[in-house]
Amino acid sequence: MQTTRILAIRHGETAWNVDTRIQGHLDIPLNEQGLRQANNLARALAQGDAIDAIYASDLSRAHTTASAIAQAMGQTVTAHTGLRERHFGEFQGRTFAEIEAELPEHAWHWRKRTPEWTPPSGGESLVTLRKRIVGTVDELAAQHPGQQIVLVAHGGVLDILYRAATRLELQAPRTWQLTNTAVNRLLWTPQGLSLVGWGDTSHLDDQVQDETTT
Asked: CA–CA separation, 37 vs 41, rounded Å?
């Protein structure tokens, strides 16, 4: 059975990553550090194996990161809303500290990773997020049997992909990194995802943010 190789990548750093401010579906651009990370990533991938397609969240922090890769490889980016970050409702625009102070009951469910809990005012539960992300990856990967594709998305998306590939529950504590522009390698078949390698930051020359929710 032919597999699809996936390079799953989180977008470069934003000012809100540094501030620990929740972005969710808000469209926050890369900061200068994030642009450097994207360019370093693009140069590294251009020296590696062939890439047959590049997909990205339509939010600019992911799409800009993907565009740097595409430019280095003479390709184009296909935007897909299914790769967006989790919608965090009223959490969006708030810092971690503000959420704890202003919405303590909801913050408790967030910390505990309650699977069915929905952030107030239009947010997504983890169960809904998992269904969206796994469905999107199934849709895209199935179009490229025997090929390698890039998916540029967000910390929450990468968290779901790791759990899907390792069969971990949504409530399991996270012990893996979700670093900006780290390269994460997965294999896809119609039976699901499997993990090849995680958190390759060899193209980076300094520390970056690791936040799952932005």
From this structure: 6
CATH class entry, domain 4-200? alpha beta
Name the DSSP class of 21.
Answer: B
Nearest to 88 by CA among 26, 131, 27: 26
pLDDT over 70, % of the chain: 95
pLDDT, tens digit, 9 for 90 and up, residues 153-199: 999 999 999 999 999 999 999 999 999 999 999 999 999 999 999 99
- Which one of 11, 25, 63, 87 is the catalytic residue? 11
pLDDT tens for each residue of 121-158: 999 999 999 999 999 999 999 999 999 999 999 999 99
Is 124 catalytic? The answer is no
Whether the CA torsion 88, 90, 92, 94 is positive or negative: it is negative
HSE at residue 25, side-chain half, CA atoms within 13 A, is: 13
Residue 126: C-alpha distances to residues 24, 78, 112 (Å): 13, 25, 11
Residue 175 makes CB contacts below 8 A (sequence gap 6+) with: none
11 is catalytic: yes
Is the pTM for the entire model greater than 0.90? yes
Other Cβ atoms within 10 Å of 59 Cβ, number: 23
Strands 53-56 and 77-79, how do they pair? parallel
Catalytic pick from 85, 106, 124, 154?
Answer: 85
Of the candidates 35, 18, 16, the one whose C-alpha atom is nearest the C-alpha of residue 26 is 16
